Amino acid sequence: MSTPVREVPAETGPSPWHPGIPEAPRIDPADASALEIDVELAVAWLEAFLYEEIVRRRGFEKVVVGLSGGVDSSLTAALCVRALGAAAVQGFLLPYRTSSDASRDHALALAESFGIATREIEITAAVDGYLDRFEPDAGGHRVGNVAARQRMIVLFDQAYKLNALPVGTGNKSERLLGYYTWHADDSPPINPLGDLFKSQVWALARAVGVPAEIVDKPATADLIHGQTDEGDLGISYPEADLILHHLLRGVSPARLVGAGFDEAKVEIVVGRLHRTHWKRHLPTVAMLSATAIGEWYLRPVDY
Amino acid sequence: MAGAGSDPLAALTPVGARRTFQPMIRNVTIAQFRPAKGDLEGTLDHAAATIAAAVAAEPAPDLVVFPETALTGYFLEGGVREVARPAGEVFQALAERAAAGPAVDVALGFYEMDAGHAYNSALYARLGPEPELVHVQRKVFLPTYGVFQEERFVESGSGIRAFDTSIGRVAILICEDAFHSISGTLAALDGAQLVLVLSASPARGAAPGVGVPTNVARWDMLGSGLASEHGIFVAVSQLVGFEGGKGFAGGSAAYTPRGERIVAGPLWEEALLPIHIDPERIADARTEEPLFADLERSWTRLLVNSPGAGIGRPAPDGPRR
């Protein structure tokens, strides 16, 4: 007589008896649990990161943050306030003539709710001084790139003037998708959000009290009227984030498609990821010696 | 394999008397510690001040345990050779700074340079009026994957052994060494009753429901498992601080021979964590659950008769079966 085997349901959920042991992640487009994050822990972690890297390691007491009115710069500024105090954070609104009023309103609302001083420096004259005179036919992407780089010119100059450190706001999703201007958004020396997917940024922003109208609005680079990130990319951030998560863990695109992920969307993500590795690196330098910097001469950033 | 009549196990059997703990409670303080990156002299001063603060407590500790690479920070890449020092030099520097203080033992991780060879090492020394360098342990398992690059910059130590100290028989495991259960097994078989784990564990993972970074939770399981498997005390000292965006979270901890957590350090901050080592608890645990006695009785026979141990045959090259 064989003993009947007790059937265990496939969907057993988290084991309640040992929270230290993680559940094995499932590869399933309907299961985004792998992206869930302990927001309280992550916020404390990033506060420690900001304080240690800015104050202890680099000796700065102040930071400058460009406030776009979007969720990334809002969360970044909020984390800086928690880590350093509101008086240490100087926000800059850097609108171009096509920037929306809503972006400005949201940036000011964020600054008010966290007690951040702001200064508005419109970049239109600087950007158009180049484009109108020399390149009047430049299209949207070029204008966007020039504006993004002009914002960094202002932010770095203001940082120098204020003896403050510029803080970057790029998240992991846009970094992996290459959806940003190289040597602009990614140029500040400190970035608290670069290892957080956009959907995790939303979760943290809600937790630290970024106003709901900022967190809930569609993400946009605000370069063209009506533009949204997800419209440009052809995929939503939650979808892209989950695909990216699995790809970075070594799951092949074919396996993702086999598990039910939409093939066209997997292709969008894989294509952007593979085309943009260069964007996540410093410039390619010709190596001629056995002391090439970063190839042979290896020293960490903080040594 | 040896035939009947010979004793192939003799060479593998640990020899020598193993000192046991004196029958009294010993006090150990785990120093969760933040070095100033690459600043050897400044960090030696900070370590000396930390020892002074630890011994000023009541009761004063017999031993202060610092983490891995406590004198320089962990991620140094090619800078290792610039900050690595001979063990004797590090010992002298500590002894001079602690000469006016009371007698106290110290375990501390540092990058070691020995005749042109660099190691990720830990020293165990007695400081105070009669300083003595008791033991140097070199890290055996060098993580070289993902964020880790140790094998590029340091060499591997050759063995794990316990050693006698004024507070009993101790062994040191350095970070990944403790991830391999064989390390704790070898330490326990060599008589260790207190295993010190010196670690620099870059924080990663913030899954909901755990409350600490995933790696800290993993360490909790490792420390508890190591202690309860062999009926030994385990003290895990973790580095804190951020290095190039990588945060060492802390979460140092200690475990009884039953695997119960005695103390848990905070996240992200330095801390002094005093614990009491009561040798009676080793006997309690080993009587209640004599796993260690079973191991001692069987392990050499097990090694010789288990092909996976590789004893008596070369490691095969080529495709794995």
Task: Give an account of the 3D structure.
The complex is a heterodimer of chains A (303) and B (321). Residues 10-15 of chain A have low confidence and may be disordered. In chain A, strand 1, helix 2 (71-84) and strand 2 form a beta-alpha-beta unit. Chain A has helices at 39-57, 71-84, 101-114, 124-134, 140-162, 172-177, 198-208, 212-216, 229-233, 237-248, 253-258, 263-275, and strands at residues 63-66, 89-93, 117-120, 165-166. Chain A is mainly alpha-helical. Chain A contains 12 helices and 4 strands; from the N terminus they run H-E-H-E-H-E-H-H-E-H-H-H-H-H-H-H. The radius of gyration of chain A is 22 Å and the shape is globular. A 4-stranded parallel β-sheet of chain A has the order 3-2-1-4, sandwiched between helices. The longest helix of chain A has 23 residues, at 140-162. In chain A, helix 2 (71-84) crosses helix 7 (198-208) and helix 4 (124-134) crosses helix 5. Chain B is α/β, with parallel strands linked by helices and 321 residues long. In chain B, the strands form 3 sheets. Chain B has a 6-stranded mixed β-sheet. Chain B has a 6-stranded mixed β-sheet with strand order 6-7-8-9-12-13. In chain B, strand 6 and strand 7 form a beta hairpin. The longest helix of chain B is centred in the last third of the chain and has 17 residues, at 214-230. Chain B is globular, with a radius of gyration of 20 Å. Chain B starts with 25 loop residues before the first strand and ends in a 16-residue tail after the last helix. Residues 1-17 of chain B have low confidence and may be disordered. The chains are: A mainly alpha (303), B alpha/beta (321). The A-B interface holds A 14, 19-22, 36-38, 41-42, 44-45, 48-49, 52-53, 56-57, 297-303 and B 37-38, 75-79, 203, 205-214, 217-218, 220-221, 241-245, 247, 249, 267-268.
